[in-house]
Design brief:
The protein has 317 residues and is α/β, with parallel strands linked by helices. The chain contains 12 helices and 12 strands.
Length: 317
């Protein structure tokens, strides 16, 4: 193995929304005991989900008969549609909404634009849970686009009444290009007052962009269903480095390391730091001693826990 140096992208790993969501399930288990039901994976990371499952969280795809009436149920960080909230209320579930506040912001934009009579163009990936939840806010007013080609094929009722919003975990560069194409086709288009792509997605991509130019290989820790992790791999490749997405150090393949001198490491917004530490240990065991942080920006964003958790914590204090 020719690896001589490791660069650790900063920022990396947990964002404020993921930290809030994971803590929500942990505190719910501490306060109420197991089981606590969680609709979908609380965040898109196998390691995190498995650890919570071991503590008594039960993950379900939908609020069907597998969730008993009246059970304590947490909604994931990716957000849910009004139909899911209504279903939970109908079944008498005690719910805690762990939706990331930045996703909630996008939901509110969708409701506002729909109320004002706009056709809403949602930039996002079909089938992603965040997209499904957002589209559920105004299904009759919303169309999904994934590429610039989708924009070219788009037909709307009134070109003067078009608005756009986006999934929070997209590629910054790709989304910028799609918005530019939308503006070309619909000059009167309006959008959110502030960017929908979340600060953590933007910052992690910026760090990988800068770091990749100095690396032969970039390893990104994250699960395959993590959109923001997939985007980090794409960004690293676009900026000149080989790159692979791995769940943990055990997935590193020796052939990736051949003729590689500098290896960069990043992790998606739902990947815990302990997985990065294990990957660094993997390289240290193979004689790599030169390990340094590659810091692009510092983050200090924090989100309060959902109100039901805060109230319960105050009552138990």
């Amino acid at each position: 193995m020719g690896v001589e140096k490791l660069l650790l992208a900063a920022p990396r790993g947990y964002c404020a929304g993921v930290d809030r969501a994971v803590q929500t399930v942990e505190r719910a288990l501490e306060l109420h005991g197991a089981p606590v039901y969680v609709r979908k994976e609380i965040v898109h990371n196998k390691h995190v989900v498995e650890k919570l499952r071991e503590r008594g969280a039960i993950f379900v795809d939908e609020l069907d008969d597998s969730v008993p009436e009246g059970a304590l149920t947490v909604f994931s960080a990716h957000g849910v549609s009004p139909a899911v909230h209504a279903d939970a209320e109908r079944r008498g579930l005690k719910t805690i909404d762990a939706t990331c506040p930045l996703v909630t912001k996008v939901h509110r934009e969708a409701v506002k634009f729909a109320g004002d009579g706009y056709t809403i163009v949602l930039i996002g990936h079909s089938g992603h849970e965040e997209v499904e939840g957002t589209m559920g806010e105004a299904p009759d007013h919303m169309v999904l686009v994934e590429t610039e080609a989708d924009v070219d094929r788009l037909e709307v009722a009134d070109p003067e009444k078009v608005a756009y919003i986006s999934q929070t975990t997209l590629s910054v560069d790709e989304t910028r290009a799609i918005i530019a194409r939308l503006r070309e086709r619909f000059p009167a288009i309006t959008g959110p007052r502030t960017d929908d792509i979340c600060y953590a997605t933007t910052n992690r991509q910026a760090a990988v962009k800068a770091m990749a130019e100095q690396c032969d290989l970039v390893l990104v820790i994250g699960s395959q269903n993590s959109s923001n992790s997939q985007r980090l791999v794409e960004v690293a490749r676009e900026y000149g480095a080989d790159s692979y997405l791995i769940d943990n150090a055990g997935q590193v393949r020796e052939e990736w390391l051949a003729a590689k001198r500098v290896v960069g490491i990043s992790s998606g917004a739902s990947a815990p730091e302990e997985l990065v530490e294990a990957l660094v240990a993997y390289f240290r065991e193979r004689g790599v001693d030169d390990v340094s942080e590659f810091e692009v920006v510092r983050e200090d964003v924090r989100f309060m826990l959902p109100k039901p958790i805060r109230v319960a914590l105050s009552a138990s204090a």
